[in-house]
């Protein structure tokens, strides 16, 4: 009897010892720590620092595998691995997600990533394999006397427009650059082609370096106002994978296409413009400052010019500082000039004497930005003391 009791006790203890820690729920403190790591990782994603994001998400999942939002963290890890081009690892994480979080509300989002990577098991896998390489030209509007036996409907009763939209979406997911070329051809035939326009969001989220030039072209040349408006909307919401927006912005602000970019951004709303500028300043090339300066000089829209100055203020390179100094000294529009001076007032790489020179150039009737005035007057107060000590 004692032996049976002892064996039972040892069995129970053995089970408890061998139960992996991830089967136990995390404490409130651990959940809070896991959430903090997730938020840190998401910030890295927003900044385009995908390598740091991956490390942070993995740390959260390793330390707190049963945290309340581990499934969300896992989804973000999958997305980050795709951004890094490590698709094999992303596929492995997708398979693990399905086993670990079978009831997760993020399952549909993970399934979308599965589709994007063309993994077996997707409901669209067979369809994708057999999808035609090119889409047919959209049918002409209905005209009396035309054979209507199959017009507008496929053999299964699905409207052709809906079928084409899904076909084009799949093509964008498989090869965004090819899809964008196809979209250009289709829009020439039908400027409001529903298969293309309905997939603007898919193109914008593809991370293709061709997406920004494509939307700029449509927003500029599109004969259909609604198509142009939608193109401007998605310009401000592009996936900036591998600094795609910054690279394209620098190229498009060259001599030949500068006026086109400026015209499109002039007609965009402040939020759309700000989203573009935010992604441009993240680009590592110093040429981004030259590109911003070219747009600044080419546009006459005062709010847009102020936005460019605000964006340049976040760039640490000396070229951005020189641009701000030039605007502060010579800009004729008061709000724009004021924005530049306020930006210089908080930069650590600006010599206080430069601020003094700018103040002497400032019209007497105009107020001096407080922060710049503080820094310069502080030096003036100290100057007599230094002179006496010598």
Notes on the structure:
The protein is mainly alpha-helical. It folds into 3 domains: 24-120, Tetratricopeptide repeat domain (Serine Threonine Protein Phosphatase 5, Tetratricopeptide repeat, Alpha Horseshoe), CATH 1.25.40; 177-300; 313-381, no CATH class. Helices cover 67% and strands 0% of the residues. The chain has 22 helices and no strands. The protein has helices at residues 2-18, 28-47, 50-63, 70-83, 87-100, 107-116, 125-130, 160-174, 176-189, 194-197, 200-204, 211-221, 225-235, 244-252, 258-266, 270-281, 287-298, 302-312, 318-330, 334-345, 352-361, 370-389. Helix 2 runs parallel beside helix 4, helix 3 (50-63) runs antiparallel to helix 4 and helix 14 crosses helix 16. The chain is flat and about 70 Å long. The N and C termini lie far apart (99 Å). 33% of the residues are buried.
Percentage of β-strand residues = under 5%
How many discrete domains?
A: 3
Helix content: 55-70%
* Contiguous uncertain segments of 5+ residues: 1-24, 121-159, 379-390
Largest sheet: none
Oligomer: single chain
- Compute the CA-based radius of gyration: 29 Å
The number of helical elements comes to 22
Order of helices and strands: HHHHHHHHHHHHHHHHHHHHHH
* 3D shape: flat
| Number of strand segments | 0
Structural class by sheet pairing and helices:
mainly alpha
> What value does the average pLDDT take?
78
- CA(first)-CA(last) distance: 99 Å
């Amino acid at each position: 009897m004692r032996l049976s009791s002892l064996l039972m006790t040892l069995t129970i203890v053995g089970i408890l010892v061998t139960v992996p820690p991830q089967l136990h729920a995390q404490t409130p403190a651990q959940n809070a720590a896991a959430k903090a790591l997730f938020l840190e990782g998401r910030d890295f994603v927003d900044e385009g620092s995908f390598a740091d994001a991956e490390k942070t998400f993995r740390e959260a999942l390793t330390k707190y595998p049963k945290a309340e939002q581990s499934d969300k963290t896992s989804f973000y890890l999958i997305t980050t691995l795709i951004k890094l081009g490590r698709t094999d690892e992303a596929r492995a994480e997708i398979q693990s997600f399905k086993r670990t979080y079978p009831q997760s509300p993020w399952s549909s989002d993970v399934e979308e990533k599965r589709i994007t990577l063309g993994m077996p098991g997707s409901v669209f896998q067979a369809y994708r394999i057999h999808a035609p390489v090119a889409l047919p030209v959209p049918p002409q509007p209905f005209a009396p006397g035309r054979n209507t036996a199959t017009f507008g409907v496929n053999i299964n009763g699905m409207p052709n427009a809906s079928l084409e939209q899904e076909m084009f979406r799949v093509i964008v997911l498989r090869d965004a650059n090819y899809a964008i070329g196809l979209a250009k051809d289709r829009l020439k035939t039908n400027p409001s082609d529903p298969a293309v326009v309905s997939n603007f969001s898919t193109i914008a989220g593809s991370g293709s370096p061709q997406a920004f030039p494509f939307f700029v072209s449509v927003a500029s040349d599109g004969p259909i106002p609604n198509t142009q408006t939608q193109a401007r909307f998605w310009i401000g919401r592009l996936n900036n994978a591998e600094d795609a927006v910054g690279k394209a912005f620098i190229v498009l602000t060259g001599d030949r296409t500068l006026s086109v970019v400026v015209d499109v951004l002039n007609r965009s709303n402040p939020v759309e413009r700000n989203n573009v500028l935010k992604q441009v300043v993240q680009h590592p090339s110093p040429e981004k400052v030259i590109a911003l300066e070219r747009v600044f000089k080419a546009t006459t829209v005062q709010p847009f010019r102020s936005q460019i100055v605000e964006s340049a203020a976040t760039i640490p390179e000396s070229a951005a500082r020189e641009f701000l100094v030039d605007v502060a000294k010579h800009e004729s529009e008061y709000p724009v000039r004021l924005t530049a001076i306020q930006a210089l007032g908080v930069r650590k790489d600006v010599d206080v004497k430069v601020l003094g020179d700018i103040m002497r150039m400032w019209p007497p009737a105009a107020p001096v930005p407080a922060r710049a005035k503080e820094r310069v007057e502080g030096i003036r107060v100290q100057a007599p003391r230094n002179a006496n000590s010598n």
